[in-house]
């Protein structure tokens, strides 16, 4: 391939050709060594530095719940210094509890505890106590193992046993789930409830929590008795802090290559794998994420932490906030109300995933470019003008359109918004452009995986850079390898194509207790096989063009990327979620469509009222999503909308969905288990769940 030296944005490593040349960041071309700055080599160092420099600045915020009025109150904050005191005490308390227990088990166990580097489980939604636990464990060179509900009870059991966790720190609603399985957890000797085990009015100073329904004093007493009967010690967070504050155990700081956390990656089959991620891994990643922001940022990083902390993406950005000495707000717990939290908190960064951004596009477009009459006409003109300005590098702001339209859309997310961050999958260009101009901000697409600390290659789209291709992170080397079964070759002209491989100093240290899986993932010792298909552009950047793992063929031999089609479908205001599938012996796609009740029901009512004779007496007033989903007229009209949408997004003929099932129940993390905690579709599970429906759509 002949690269254009005038537009080259990556460094092509000389003499690196194998199946294709490897590529690096131009600012880091002579070495992969990318050290952290300011002598911050561990997250312990990073936090201690922040406490020294900004002890009285707000760090962690939460919205207390008012059980009388059943509402969440405005954010209340704890400063860096306040969090430090709590973390110091909690870390000391965990060590004291472990030492006391180890003394009953002999000298070998006591030595293991005193040598540190053992795991503590964390099991809850995102909340302040999770972060404090992370800070606390670092003071004693301990590490965490994150759990989450969607893995199921068998995986919870596997994680606690695999990590050999002695203690679990969890929210009160998780305690009974652990006790039910306690007979299968021989290593677990203590449970720490993040919520107070006392009544709300007992004088507890733990203001961040309350006894959530259905727990009351009586049920908490039952939990205490149950734990005691199983020889498991049950504490609450505040009690462990008090234990640790008495003759506090001195800090035992970690080294850069010490484990910070085990992150368990969920697969479609078998047990989850535990990626070993170190303090240095996260420190390097935080520095680069901050460098991505340096040209545009006006304020220190701040965020509402709502994507699961048991995954690398949100954990990474909490570390970025710590590195910049910023603020983190925790949500009220209902993901459907996350924008209520962001409007109150006003973060500078919003971390999302493509499905969430497609949802934002749907909300905004319904109120603007797809609006009725004059509103729609004016909005389409405004969006068109701003996108043209963007492409001509005239910026994301417009003195007139922002004032009358887009300041309102920006405020819907955050008045202080500086950037949107997206990961896990590509976001449609049309969605990106629309959100950039309506939110008056840039979008940074970070591509990576757990094993690369969620980082590898990235691109920034804003008023000065509309380039949509990816360049390697500092300290990261990227190459392609052939995938002949999909006809992607590094010898393709004019653009080499193949599976993306990456290596970096921030690459994970392997899978915990699983050399076989480690060897499968690491190619030639250091390179990580991502499973994604990339293409090298004329300027040396990389574009993600396909997904190796989720592709399937139709009968005409064309490979289908279902995520690409779903990302298009999810931009429609009537569609909340979609699952695209196909059978290799058939020539077209089918889909399960979850309608958005907020737009779907009003739309359907208007149709029923205008075509009463076609609906056999169906009442527009009494219709709901379930009854509408079973109506063939409604179904066919949605199909017509999908055809028009596919044409607008220029999908190929074989990518157009030809039959649909309308599903009244949304895909969920807990309701039907079809979404991961980061809201990605669990495709293997969805295919099994809808197997009979998919087959029926072809009949």
UniProtKB/TrEMBL annotation:
InterPro entries (UniProt xref): AMP-binding_CS, AMP-dep_synth/lig_dom, ANL_N_sf
Residues annotated as transmembrane: none
The keyword Transcription regulation appears for this protein: no
Sorted UniProt keywords: ATP-binding, Nucleotide-binding
Stored SUPFAM superfamilies: Acetyl-CoA synthetase-like
UniProt GO MF annotations: ATP binding; long-chain fatty acid-CoA ligase activity
GO cellular component: a single term: endoplasmic reticulum
Domain AMP-dependent synthetase/ligase residue range list: 75-512
Top-rank lineage group of the source organism: Eukaryota
Record PANTHER family: AMP-BINDING DOMAIN-CONTAINING PROTEIN-RELATED, LONG-CHAIN-FATTY-ACID--COA LIGASE
Protein name: AMP-dependent synthetase/ligase domain-containing protein
Organism listed in the record: Furculomyces boomerangus
């Amino acid at each position: 391939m002949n690269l254009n030296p005038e537009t080259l944005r990556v460094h092509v490593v000389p003499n690196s050709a194998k199946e294709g040349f490897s590529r690096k960041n131009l600012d880091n071309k002579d070495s992969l060594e990318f050290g952290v700055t300011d002598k911050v080599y561990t997250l312990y160092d990073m936090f201690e530095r922040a406490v020294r420099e900004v002890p009285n600045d707000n760090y962690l915020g939460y919205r207390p719940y008012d059980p009388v009025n059943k509402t969440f109150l405005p954010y209340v904050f704890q400063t860096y210094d306040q969090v430090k005191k709590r973390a110091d005490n909690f870390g000391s308390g965990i060590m004291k509890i472990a030492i006391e227990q180890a003394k009953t088990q002999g000298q070998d166990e006591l030595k293991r505890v005193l040598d540190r580097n053992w795991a503590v489980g964390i099991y809850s939604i995102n909340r302040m106590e999770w972060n404090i636990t992370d800070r606390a464990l670092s003071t004693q060179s301990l590490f965490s193992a994150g759990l989450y509900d969607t893995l199921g009870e068998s995986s919870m059991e596997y994680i606690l046993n695999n990590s050999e966790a002695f203690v679990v720190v969890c929210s009160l609603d998780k305690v009974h789930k652990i006790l039910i399985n306690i007979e299968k957890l021989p290593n677990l000797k203590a449970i720490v409830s993040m919520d107070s085990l006392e009544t709300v009015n007992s004088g507890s100073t733990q203001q961040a929590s309350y006894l959530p329904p259905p727990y009351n004093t009586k049920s908490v007493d039952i939990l205490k008795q149950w734990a005691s009967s199983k020889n498991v010690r049950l504490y609450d967070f505040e009690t462990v802090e008090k234990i640790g504050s008495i003759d506090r155990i001195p800090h035992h700081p970690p080294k850069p290559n010490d484990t910070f956390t085990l992150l368990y990656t969920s697969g479609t089959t078998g047990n989850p794998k535990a990626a070993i991620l170190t303090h240095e891994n996260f420190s390097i990643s935080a520095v680069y994420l901050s460098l991505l922001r340096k040209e545009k940022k006006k304020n220190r990083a701040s965020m509402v932490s709502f994507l699961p902390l048991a995954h690398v993406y949100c954990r990474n950005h909490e570390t970025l906030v710590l590195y910049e000495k910023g603020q983190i707000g925790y949500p009220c717990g209902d993901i459907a109300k996350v924008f209520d939290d962001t409007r109150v908190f006003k973060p500078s960064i919003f971390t999302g995933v493509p499905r969430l951004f497609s949802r934002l596009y749907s909300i905004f477009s319904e109120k603007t470019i797809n609006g009725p009459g004059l509103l729609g006409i004016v909005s389409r003109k405004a969006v068109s003008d701003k996108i043209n300005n963007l492409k001509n590098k005239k910026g994301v702001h417009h003195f007139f359109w922002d004032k009358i339209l887009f300041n309102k859309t920006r405020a819907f997310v955050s008045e202080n918004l500086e950037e949107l961050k997206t990961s896990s999958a590509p976001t449609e260009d049309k969605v990106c452009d629309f959100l950039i101009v309506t939110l008056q901000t840039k979008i940074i697409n970070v591509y990576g995986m757990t094993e690369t600390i969620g980082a590898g290659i990235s691109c920034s789209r804003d008023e000065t850079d509309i380039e949509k291709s990816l360049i390697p992170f500092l300290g990261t080397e990227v190459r392609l390898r052939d995938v002949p079964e999909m006809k992607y070759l590094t010898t393709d002209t004019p653009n080499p194509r193949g599976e993306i491989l990456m290596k970096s100093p921030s690459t994970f240290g392997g899978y915990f207790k699983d050399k076989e899986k480690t060897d499968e993932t690491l190619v030639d010792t250091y390179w990580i096989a991502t499973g994604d298909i990339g293409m090298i552009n004329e300027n040396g950047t990389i574009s993600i063009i396909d997904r190796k793992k989720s592709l399937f063929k139709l009968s005409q031999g064309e490979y289908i990327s279902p995520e690409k089609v779903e990302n298009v479908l999810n931009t429609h205001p009537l569609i909340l979620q979609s699952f695209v599938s196909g059978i290799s012996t058939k020539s077209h796609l089918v889909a399960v469509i979850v309608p958005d009740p907020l737009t779907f029901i009003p739309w359907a009512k208007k149709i029923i009222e205008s075509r009463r004779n076609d609906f056999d007496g169906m009442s527009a007033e009494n219709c709901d999503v379930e009854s509408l989903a079973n109506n063939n007229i409604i179904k066919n009209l949605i199909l017509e909308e999908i055809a028009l949408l596919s044409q607008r997004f220029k999908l190929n003929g074989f990518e157009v969905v030809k039959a649909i099932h309308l599903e009244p129940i949304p895909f969920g993390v807990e309701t039907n288990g079809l979404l991961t905690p980061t809201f990605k579709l669990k495709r293997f599970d969805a295919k099994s769940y809808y197997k009979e429906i998919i087959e029926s759509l072809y009949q």
